[in-house]
Amino acid sequence: MTVGFTFTLLAFASALGAGPGPSANESRATFPRVTGQNLNGKTLELPRAFSGPASFVFVAYVRGQQAQVDSWKSFVADVRTRFPAVGEYEVPTLSKGNALFRGFIDGGMRRGIRDVATRASTITLYIDKRPFDSALGIASEDEIAVLLVRPDGTVLWRAAGSYAPGKLAGLEEALASVE
Q: Which CATH number does 10-176 carry?
């Protein structure tokens, strides 16, 4: 799912409230309960709304990180042919201080994404990022966080940044646990 316009205005919005961000360091984290809205306008409680036994979740903070997200797409599509019940979500994450710009930002993303299914799986969060990042062990917003998450919030696997085969350690074991 390509979200070309996903972060068109996020660089500006991020400047209004950037906090700590993604890292590939710790082992077990829990995806915190947060509420967001997908680009079809449906309000969802995460992680409960993640489908299947587990889902790939891409947490991104600024527009320029879309290339990092896109670098994983072919690999994740291949994994999902072997594990079709595994879901996939993009979660643009912004400071709740950006409330004034929500309609403008989300409207821009909606206009950039025509596919209804892609809109459904792109869930924007406007939250206090510090507790969110802390719960996930995210230490830097310089790279995206790539997570495999159960609907109960258990993070089974994680990586950070653009796709590289060396970042896949432990993924097969995590996927085997969700079959």
A: 3.40.30.10
Q: What angle is formed at CA 92 by the lines to CA 72 and CA 10, rounded to 5 degrees? A: 115
pTM of the model: 0.81
Give residue for tokens 């995806």: 31
Q: Is the pLDDT of residue 67 over 90?
A: yes
Torsion sign over Cα 140, 144, 146, 147: positive
Q: Which residue in this structure is represented by tokens 């979660």?
A: 91
CA dist 43 and 36 (Å) reads 6
* Alpha carbon separation from 98 to 13, 67, 111 (Å, rounded): 6, 23, 19
Contacts 24+ apart (CB under 8 A), 152-156: 152/47, 152/48, 153/30, 153/31, 153/32, 153/33, 153/47, 154/28, 154/30, 154/31, 155/28, 155/29, 155/30, 155/31, 156/54
Distance CA 78, CA 94 (A): 29
| Separation of alpha carbons 31 and 122, rounded Å | 16
- Residue recorded with tokens 């390509």: 2
24 has pLDDT over 50: no
